[in-house]
User: What shape does this take?
Amino acid sequence: MHIVVLAGGVGGARFLRGVLAAAPDAEVTAVVNTGDDVTLHGLRICPDLDTVMYTLGDGIDEDRGWGRRDESWTVKDELAAYGAEPTWFGLGDRDIATHLVRTRMLDAGYPLSDVTAALAQRWQPGVRLLPMSDQRVETHVVVDDPDTGRPRAIHFQEWWIRHRAALAASGFVQVGVDDARPGPGVVEAISTADAVVFAPSNPVVSIGTVLGVPGIRDAVRAATGRVVGISPIVDGAALRGMADRCLPVVGVEVSAEGVGRHYGARSTGGLLDAWLVHTGDQATVPGVDVRAVPLLMSSPEATRALAQAALDAAGAGHR
Ligand code: FO1
Assistant: This one.
């Protein structure tokens, strides 16, 4: 069985762990958001790819959900001592090795997909890790400049980390998306998968960014397998990842129903065949098979059960 999961960072990585537990014999492909990628201190950083790779490779810091376990911050402190901005980004010493290897390979002309495969050789995540695109696509956030009051775009990571998404955003801009193409293997994986699952990642800046790469949305709509989404909103609030700060910016109601309708039914031009919402949440999404199941990934068992529910909804769930 071949399962394809569209994923962002922390939530997507944890969900993928559940998929591997629920379907240990399946071939799993993760199509990962690269819109959060950023170049800082001369290093190319791919937060969502690294979060998935570290999480599935058992190198993640569980409490933070990102970066390495047993991390130290010596280089970060030394950079701050020089006043080398940005000082707000958490650059861990162990993590820097990943960015150095990636930056060197990119500078040598290797595409991001080759770089990702090379890094995954060490971590053995157990899934095929595919960047959504080999071309650079960066999410920038349009905010009112606190100093001038005029709108300007800042990188998503600055909005997210430095400002904790507290700056009112009037829009998201995917810089470079018009020239981007699906990464190698992405369309083929989606087209031939037994199940395509949207992880409970941020529907705007994670799943939305993946779907915004020209060609990926069409591939999902044409998929031979069923397409199942998992609501990132439980009881009207985002579990993590501040989806509740992003959805209003694009005019989507902060509810399981709102996000489900935003993705839409495949039978009427949208993307979903099925939509999982949290037990107790109501959601009517015309043309979509809505199922209420526990969505909280509060333990490995709960996460496995959620993944199993997604596979069942795709008709690919095997006992
Ligand atoms: N998130 C934070 O809230 N603070 C950080 O300092 C931070 C640093 C960081 C470094 C590497 C990396 O791979 C991820 C990092 N993240 C940090 C998480 C990251 O900003 C988000 O996980 C994604 O961009 C959104 O999914």
